[in-house]
Amino acid sequence: MNALVVDAVVRRGAFTLEAQVSAGPGQRVGVVGPNGSGKSTLLRAIAGLETLSSGRITLSGRTLADRSVDLPPQQRNIGVVFQDSRLFRHLDVRDNVAFGPRSRGRSRKEARAIADEWLERLEAADLADRRPGELSGGQIQRVALARALAQQPQALLLDEPTAALDAGARVEVRAELRRHLAGLEIPAVIVTHDPIEALAMTDRLVVLESGRVAQTGTPHEIAARPLTSYVARLLGLNLYAGRVAGDRVLLDAGGELVPRAVPATDHVLVTIPPAAIAVHLRRPEGSSPRNVWSARVVALEPGRESVRLRLRGAPDAMVDLTPTAVATLGLVPGVDVWLSVKASETDCYAGEAG
Amino acid sequence: MSRREPAPLLLVVPAAIAALFLVLPLVALVVRAPWHDLGRLLTTTQAVQALRLSLLTATAATLIAVVLGVPLAWLLARGRLPGTRLLRGASTLPLVMPPVVGGVALLYAFGRMGLVGRYLDLWFGITIPFTSVAVVMAETFVAMPFLVVTLEGALRGADSGGEEAAATLGASPLRIFFAVTLPAVRPALVAGAVLCWARALGEFGATITFAGSFAGSTRTMPIAIYLAMIGDPQSGTALALVMLIVSLVVLVLHRERWWYAGVLRGGGR
Amino acid sequence: MRKYVPALMAALLLPLLAGCGGNGDKTLTVFAAASLQGPFTQLAKQFESEHKGVEVELSFGASNDLAAQIQQGAPADVIATASTKTMDQIAADVTDRSDFASNTMEVAVPAGNPAHIRSLADLTRKGVKLAVCQAAVPCGVVAAQVFANAKLTVHPVTQEVDVKSVLTKVSLGEVDAGIVYVSDVKTAGPKVTGIIIPAAVNAVTTYPVAVVSKTAEKSLAADFVTLVKAAAGRRALAAGGFAPPSRS
């Protein structure tokens, strides 16, 4: 039985959102889409920060909103992690996390104890006495997550949780989110425009475009057969499913890769940014990249600043090169080349090819 | 290393003139004050009474202004009722009204023959004019708009993100107001309250019209100074000096960072 | 909108320029105590009609304020105060001083006399709200004298800064009685009734008038003083409730 069932129609001026999303207990559903597609509106409607024009939202059998009911956010018991965290600057971390329990009637002492528990669980106990102004971006989002969870919500919403972070913090927070979300027993909906989050942190994806659902499915299904140019662009990332063998990953699609780090699981997903793959006309000797394989150029797609090459090999790959490089190497469809990528540019996560 | 642009003369010169214009009279006051006699002049019963009354009434007026003015500011900033614009105009009217006019208006409303006052007298035998209560009312009337205007601007500009987050965490609208909205505008609240206090302290026209003037109960510092200037200018100047110092201390203190730092440790904007 | 600015500025400034007496008109500046407003306004009109080309500019205020302004060099030609003491203070700045009127005190009560005041003694009754002038101003000094003469102790609820404020409180009904000048009761109209204070205990205020030494219009100033003291002046003052200067 799906815990969170959303059938939302929101009309705002000229824009209409019409989307259906559902998530079962412990399921992580990602909502992706270009700017203006209605992702945030959908999330806010679920949280109760926007009113439905029509439709229905139920959570664990309770009706949160429909024709006759429109529960305010305080009664929906849904935790929200916002892009800009929205931690209360005048309270320390502990009181921030304790805010939910306290608002729901717990005494100050009880609420603080609950806060400490959650901070412990999210490995942020040492931050308890600090103020939001003293925290780094990554720490802030960790606290925001603790705050949202401390009230024991029946569902969790994350609105582009890493979008406002710098690259380093983003990687750190992403990893943490993966970990903590994996252990949840409640449904979670994550709005994101980050490909890695979309593909590696979710069980199902909903692609929104212009207020309507363009595609749904597991990340792998969507990656295998993108139905829209947005998804294809979103996938401007090489994504491979495979199995761990020692320090290597044997890819389902053929070939093997040595990633930066190998998690202690069997099935993994490996990602490589197109710009990280180097193209050689001859097989590179020795040197550091331990990932080297041969491939053939299949297509060239000139982009704004670079050219995207599609290559067939073990595995297939998308590579971004400067126009100059393409010209210098004389790359045209049909040319055989060697590809190499450093292990450090190769990310690896536990995950199934759906 | 960024370059320090020299301040444009077109701004510096008027600024210097403005500063001089404001500071010179104060300096003149300090210079002409009867320093040698200050001790005696300031410890007379009248002086002590007037100062005590002024400090008490200004503080009382500010407290009332906070209790009543904060909700009013909130209503003006967030309310969507049709009469909001009119209400805003009415609540800022005391700012442009001559204080004496304000005093007369208060008499017409709360005086012995006033709209409301006559019933207070008839039913409860209470008359407000000529009491310290009247002083507080007069000061609140002229000073509260300062608090309301300052706070309304801040509430209007405050972003609602924190409030939405609080809502998702289960906070009732009232809790949101006290736990999130108000703390976020604390600087404006403090600034507005200080401005209000300063204005209440210096109030003359409305007080003397509505409350009259009697030593101890209604003769505040400004009235005492005015009267002293008629008969005993030395005493008047001494009292004026005290008001100047008290006002300066408060106005300077409320801007001090160290006073704030303890309150908004590391989290202030 | 911008192109109207010059025209607007001209419209605002012209009257100011016109007021600078550009037509060869002479201006006589007269400072007078506030209580003299009625009679002096009348006399000014008469003076202007008798002296073609002369404009009389009247400035009313508290006697001590006016005296202070004279001391600071204000450009007045004639000054008339409500107290001999105030005129004494600026003796060095005036000439040709003489007394031209006198005034006594009266009890003013709101129309209808709600507290049923019939004599000075009634003012000592419990619960009666009395307004007087503050001790530092002339009308307060005289009021104190009256009560001293009558050997009564009163407890006013307020000591106002000037006599007009006392009158306002009475006419608004906020106090049951106030000690003001006879002239004030006369000009106050129907809102206020006067209760006579017996001459035996009353205090007399003498009004002096003088020419300011620094005046540029010595003869005009002297003419005005003459008018004030002439029959026309006495009539105007009597109409305002003033009595002739007492011969003491």
Structure commentary:
The complex is a heterotrimer of chains A (354), B (269) and C (248). Chain A is of the alpha+beta class. Chain A has helices at residues 39-47, 93-103, 108-121, 137-150, 167-182, 195-200, 219-224, 229-234, 323-329, and strands spanning 4-12, 15-23, 28-32, 54-59, 62-65, 78-81, 155-159, 188-191, 204-209, 212-217, 238-245, 248-251, 256-257, 267-272, 278-280, 291-302, 307-313, 317-321, 336-341, 347-350. The model of chain A has no long low-confidence stretch (mean pLDDT 88). The longest helix of chain A has 16 residues, at 167-182. Chain A is globular and about 70 Å long. In chain A, helix 2 runs parallel beside helix 4 and helix 4 (137-150) runs parallel beside helix 5. In chain A, a hairpin with a 2-residue loop joins strand 11 (238-245) and strand 12 (248-251). Chain A folds into two domains: 4-234, P-loop containing nucleotide triphosphate hydrolases (Rossmann fold); 238-350, OB fold (Dihydrolipoamide Acetyltransferase, E2P) (Beta Barrel). Chain A is 25% helix and 32% strand. Chain B has 269 residues and is an all-alpha fold. Chain B has 14 helices and no strands. Chain B has helices spanning 9-32, 38-42, 45-78, 84-96, 99-110, 117-124, 132-157, 161-168, 173-184, 186-202, 205-210, 221-231, 233-253, 257-261. Chain B is globular. Chain C has two domains: 26-102 and 206-239, Periplasmic binding protein-like II (D-Maltodextrin-Binding Protein, domain 2); 103-204, 3-Layer(aba) Sandwich (D-Maltodextrin-Binding Protein, domain 2), CATH 3.40.190.10. Helices cover 38% and strands 25% of the residues of chain C. Chain C contains nine helices and nine strands. Chain C has helices at 4-18, 37-50, 63-71, 84-89, 138-149, 163-171, 182-188, 218-229, 231-239; strands at residues 26-33, 54-61, 78-80, 94-110, 130-133, 158-160, 177-181, 192-196, 204-212. In chain C, strand 1 (26-33), helix 2 and strand 2 form a beta-alpha-beta unit. At the B-C interface, helix 12 of B face strand 6 and helix 6 of C.
